[in-house]
Amino acid sequence: MILSQSEQYQEQLNGIFQALADPTRRAVLARLGLGPASISDLAKPFDMALPSFMKHIHLLEGSGLIRTHKEGRVRTCALEKKPFAAVETWLSTQRVIWEGRTDRLEQFVTATQDKEESR
Amino acid sequence: MILSQSEQYQEQLNGIFQALADPTRRAVLARLGLGPASISDLAKPFDMALPSFMKHIHLLEGSGLIRTHKEGRVRTCALEKKPFAAVETWLSTQRVIWEGRTDRLEQFVTATQDKEESR
Predict the structure, then answer these.
(1) Chain A residues with CB-CB distance to B14 below 8 A
(2) pTM of the shown model
(3) Residues A4-42: pLDDT tens digits?
(4) Among the listed residues A73, A49, A46, A76, the one whose alpha carbon sits nearest the alpha carbon of residue A61
(5) Is residue A97 within 8 Å of residue B34, measured between CB atoms?
(6) Interhelix angle for B50-63 vs B5-20, to 10°?
(7) Which among B93, B68, B66, B60 is positioned nearest to B82, based on CA atoms?
(8) Tens digit of pLDDT for each residue in A32-90?
(9) How far is CA A48 from CA A27, A55, A56, in A?
(10) Of A2, A23, A83, B43, whose CA is between 20 and 30 Å from A50?
């Protein structure tokens, strides 16, 4: 299936917002905001079986909000900050709509998408 | 069940992010950003049976992102802008964490929560 740029943006937002809709996943993102961490360190604060915790990690990785890599027996997670910009763009777009500046809306969306791509 | 203020904030974020994780619901919010609209007008752009569309409306209403009221046979929906501030607060908090200003984090969160409550 080939998606247009707009469809890709919508798919990305679906995945990001789904990932953010859970307190464990938000807590993991906040922890990774301080720096990378191993799965076992990340799991420690949560009273949760490892397979359940791993589902959260996989969902976060699928959304693009984190990346993971394995060295030996240790899998390390790190935050990906770029997708947060997609959320901020979406929020900014809503404010543009509210302010009735719909004539400038298309121009704004195009400009912010270009800005995100050049990051 | 009595929830603490922090638990209430987490529950609110769960509902908001869940509501935002769907392109139909985001499109409805964008439309309502232009002004209130009836359910039938809102449903028009979507190739969707009314019961399916109503599920999206109920989920949006449950998250606090919209309110609805019925006059005669017409139910009108309107945007509630306040919950968007909770998302912005969460995003800002992440940026504060990234910038390593964790000493000021608690102060910041308290201040923004106070600000939201006084809106």
Answers:
(1) 21-23
(2) 0.84
(3) 888 899 999 999 999 999 999 999 999 999 999 999 999
(4) A76
(5) yes
(6) 150
(7) B66
(8) 999 999 999 999 999 999 999 999 999 999 999 999 999 999 999 999 999 999 999 99
(9) 14, 11, 11
(10) A83
Distance between CA atoms of residues A36 and B87, nearest Å = 24
| Chain B interface disruption, residue of A94, A105, A108, most B CBs within 10 A | A94
Contact state of B26 with A102 under an 8 Å Cβ cutoff: no
Say how far apart CA A12 and CA A62 lie, in whole Å: 10
Indicate yes or no: CB of B23 within 8 angstroms of CB of A10.
yes
Q: How far apart are CA B100 and CA A115, in angstroms?
A: 25
Write down the pLDDT at residue B114: 60
Q: Residue B30 is nearest to which of A81, A84, A94, comparing CB atoms?
A: A94
Cβ proximity of B18 and A21 under 8 Å: yes
If interface means Cβ-Cβ distance under 8 Å, which residues of chain B face chain A? 10, 13-14, 17-18, 20-23, 26, 29-30, 33-34, 79, 81, 84, 87-88, 90-91, 93-94, 97-98, 100, 102
Question: Computed from CA positions of residues B31, A97, A99, B17, in that sequence, does the dihedral angle turn out positive or negative?
Answer: positive
pLDDT 10s digits, B65-101: 999 999 999 999 999 999 999 999 999 999 999 988 6
Query: Is pLDDT at B12 greater than 80 in this prediction?
Result: yes
Whole-complex ipTM: 0.83
